[in-house]
Amino acid sequence: MASYLVLITQFVSTVIIVLISLKLKPTESQKLNNPRLVKAQAALEAWTHSITSDPNKITSTWSGPNVCNYTGIYCAPAPDDSTVFTVAGIDLKDANIAGSLPEDLGLLTDLDFFHINSNRFTGSLPNSFNKLSLLYELDISFNQFSGPFPQVVLAIPSLRYLDIRFNNFAGDIPSRLFDLKLDALFINNNRFQFTLPQNFGNSPVSVMVLSNNDIKGRIPSSVGKMKDTLNEIIISNTGLTGPLPQEIGYLEKVTVFDVSFNRLEGELPGSMQGMKSLEQLNLKDNNFSGVVPSSICTLPKLEHFDGSDNDFHGPLPKCPFIQPNHNRGKFMIF
């Protein structure tokens, strides 16, 4: 099932790009003596020197003062002065470009979105990104970035969408990440090693995906504080241990709850009956035990429940959508 928020975010991003591209191109008089476009030209020229492979020749147009005509570069009137054009966005996704990101990109201080997903960039984010105070969306997923978590993202005040999944980042995750005012957080499929901090529940995200990292310990009880915003949470294949906290019952807006392929244990909390919006519940391949509570049957929107490869026992609740597996004590509901 595709993430509803991800689809909406992609749609909004596309709309932003289309609207920006439909705006009038800057006139010659707007180009002359425009320090913002002069700085942008310098930043992008420096970037071309950091690119080692561009088989589709995307950056071959990055020459001369007409920055707004460069492929993948989107201009718009500046947010503080509608008579001045500035670079508002960069979208180079699926371009198969290799290289790194120079510090000069910090010159693009009016940038609203930076999408370079599905390329072959290496290194990490420049520290100069702390100057991108208007940056709303940052997507560097599906690249070859490495090193520790890019701390510079903690200093971008307008950031709402952060996607660094499918890279080679490693090490600890700063607890401050969960205090950011993000709408969406994707850090899955890296090599992070961390414990979910007590302020985990401070995050106001709608969707959070942490899967395929090395996460020690339990899901903090503070997860219940996410009840007003959280729609989807996926923390599969991470090594989580302990029981599910009773506080997950507060997550009445969650549609997807996936903690499969971990080492979670204990009985399912009866408070799960409060997850009224739940559509997909995936508990597969853990160490859960006890009896599956009959309150599962009362969840009005549940479509898929995978509880296979656990240690449940006793009779299954008589829900119309339950189908036992052939293996005793294991089952799948869908």
What would you say the CATH architecture of the largest domain is?
Alpha-Beta Horseshoe
| Radius of gyration from the alpha-carbon trace, in angstroms | 23 Å
CATH topology of the largest domain: Leucine-rich repeat, LRR (right-handed beta-alpha superhelix)
Largest sheet: 13 strands, mixed
Going by helix content, strand content and strand pairing, the class is alpha/beta
CATH class category name of the largest domain: Alpha Beta
Please give a structural write-up.
By secondary structure, the protein is an alpha/beta fold. It has two domains: 171 residues, Ribonuclease Inhibitor (Leucine-rich repeat, LRR (right-handed beta-alpha superhelix)); 148 residues, Leucine-rich repeat, LRR (right-handed beta-alpha superhelix), CATH 3.80.10. The chain contains three helices and 24 strands. The longest helix is centred in the N-terminal third of the chain and has 19 residues. It is found in: Secreted. This is Leucine-rich repeat extensin-like protein 6. It comes from Stylosanthes scabra. Keywords: Leucine-rich repeat, Repeat, Secreted, Signal.
Which short descriptors sum up this protein?
334 residues; alpha/beta; Leucine-rich repeat, LRR (right-handed beta-alpha superhelix); 13-stranded mixed β-sheet; seven-stranded mixed β-sheet; 3 helices
In short:
It is found in: Secreted. By secondary structure, the chain is of the alpha/beta class. The chain is 12% helix and 26% strand.
SSE topology sketch:
Elements: H1 4-22, H2 28-31, H3 35-50, E1 51-53, E2 73-78, E3 81-91, E4 98-99, E5 113-115, E6 120-123, E7 137-139, E8 144-147, E9 161-163, E10 168-171, E11 184-186, E12 191-195, E13 207-209, E14 214-216, E15 232-234, E16 241-242, E17 256-258, E18 263-266, E19 280-282, E20 287-290, E21 304-306, E22 311-312, E23 322-324, E24 331-333
Parallel strand pairs: 3-5, 4-6, 5-7, 6-8, 7-9, 8-10, 9-11, 10-12, 11-13, 12-14, 13-15, 15-17, 16-18, 17-19, 18-20, 19-21, 20-22
Antiparallel strand pairs: 1-4, 2-3, 21-24, 23-24
Protein name: Leucine-rich repeat extensin-like protein 6
Organism: Stylosanthes scabra
Keywords: Leucine-rich repeat, Repeat, Secreted, Signal
